[in-house]
UniProtKB/TrEMBL annotation:
Residues 75-233 form the Ribosomal RNA small subunit methyltransferase E methyltransferase domain. This is 16S rRNA (uracil(1498)-N(3))-methyltransferase. It catalyses: uridine(1498) in 16S rRNA + S-adenosyl-L-methionine = N(3)-methyluridine(1498) in 16S rRNA + S-adenosyl-L-homocysteine + H(+). Keywords: Cytoplasm, Methyltransferase, rRNA processing, S-adenosyl-L-methionine, Transferase. The keyword Cell membrane does not apply. It is an enzyme of class 2 (transferase). Belongs to the RNA methyltransferase RsmE family.
Amino acid sequence: MLTLFLVDNLPIEISQIYVMDGDDGHHAARVLRVEPGEELLLSDGKGSWSRVRVTQVDKKSITTVVVETGTQRALPITITVIQALTKGDRAKEAIELLTESGVDIIIPWQSLRSIGKAEAGVEKLRTTARESSKQSRRFWVPEVRDVATTKEVLGFIASADIAIVLHESAVGKFSEAILTKSDPKSVVIVIGPEGGLTDEELELLQGAGAKVAVLGRPILRSAHAGIAAVSAVNSALKIW
């Protein structure tokens, strides 16, 4: 498996010379210790990619030549996860797992019982999504939105083809809720905080059109529920 680097100025012409410097160049040269002849993948994080061959290694940069380019199309179904803010490293862990699961859009939510606080950490979460995309070889970096209010969350739900709120006391199964509409183009999953959703929030979310469902018998942490739910969506809708 080739190592993936995300770059802003993706080279897309065959035989084009590309010099990778900065943090990525240093990482490739000094940490990965790549050698001339090795191949790497580059992507702009928006579906386009290039396979390059290393021709020269310096102390803090490498020189490469493009040998193949291509574009990976976006999937026909957009999966959005609205994740209630969690405390400390749990927020970072949630972003990592959601990125690895293949989610398209991540929306942090300041719910009533959210312990984690908002604005300061959003850029860090975006960096986490970018780094996790490299780790999981994603050519599409998920979009991490600004922290949403409950009113904004209701709007996202209303515009989705399918919207599901995870709740441990729900009667309906997740597998049933995801099949309520044929050929959906957009799916929204709402994950509450560790302290759970309030009755008022649950009522508002349902009023906006969301189905409330339970994700199996085990009760997952807020940060862990997303990867399980997105995996179930990918399987049920035959994305995988």
